[in-house]
Automatic annotation (TrEMBL):
It comes from the Eukaryota. Pfam families: Baculo_FP_2nd (PF25298). Residues 142-196 form the FP protein C-terminal domain. This is (apollo) hypothetical protein. InterPro entries: FP_C. It comes from Parnassius apollo.
Length: 208
């Protein structure tokens, strides 16, 4: 006996779309919870360090004076067994990023603005010893958005786009300068990158 299951295909597609929409909503809600957080990478990790003191020192180097009361919590990202791993060359160590949660969004924005204005701050400037790793300050992202941001940056380099940036947890790319009338394109999913790839001459096909 042959059973016709073709009627199930539309239902399966609908279910997949529902699941994808739910996952997108959950990711958006998770990103909102990170609204007061930043991530500081490049700062060497040492035994018995004081993460809060490190962040306050970074702030001072950026020209802003913060106190303990301005920080909700500070910790290294990931588990400690991921800490200080030697890379393939065997002579350089990688360190976990510092996660910083501010008590007020205004403080977070101030910190991020000053960090963007000073791109040459190094780990050695904070610790007074160790390698001269550049310190990078970025918005804190969910795992899904972090992967999407990484892929968007790669897409920018590979397909003639000039800018890729974050704004309040959202990802944008742009092909040219604002003065040239180039629109900012919001990247919400991998599908947006795929659509841009299929329509290189129509970047406005993605909703901004």
């Amino acid at each position: 006996m042959i059973v016709d299951l073709s009627h199930l295909n539309p239902l399966n597609k609908k279910n997949k779309a529902t699941v994808a929409d739910l996952q997108s909503r959950l990711n958006s809600e998770a990103q909102i919870t990170l609204g007061n957080e930043l991530e500081i990478s490049g700062l060497e990790e040492t035994p018995n360090e004081n993460p809060t003191h490190l962040v306050l020192t970074v702030a001072a180097k950026l020209g802003i004076e913060y106190q303990d009361m301005d920080l909700n919590y500070v910790h290294r990202a990931g588990t400690k067994n991921q800490n200080i791993i030697t890379n393939v060359s065997g002579n350089r160590k990688l360190h976990r990023s510092l996660v910083v949660a501010f008590t007020r969004q205004a403080k977070r924005e101030e910190f991020l603005e000053h960090a963007k204005a000073r791109k040459n701050l190094k780990s050695k400037d904070i610790l007074n010893y160790g390698p001269e790793n550049l310190i990078d300050v970025n918005e804190r992202l969910t795992g899904k958005n972090r992967r999407l941001f990484r892929n968007a940056r790669a897409f920018t380099v590979e397909h003639g786009y000039r800018f890729c940036w974050l704004r309040n947890g959202s990802i944008f790319i742009r092909k040219g300068d604002v003065k040239e009338g180039s629109p900012a394109i919001r990247i919400r999913s991998e599908n947006d990158l795929s659509r841009l790839l299929c329509a290189q001459t129509k970047p406005d096909t993605v909703t901004t």
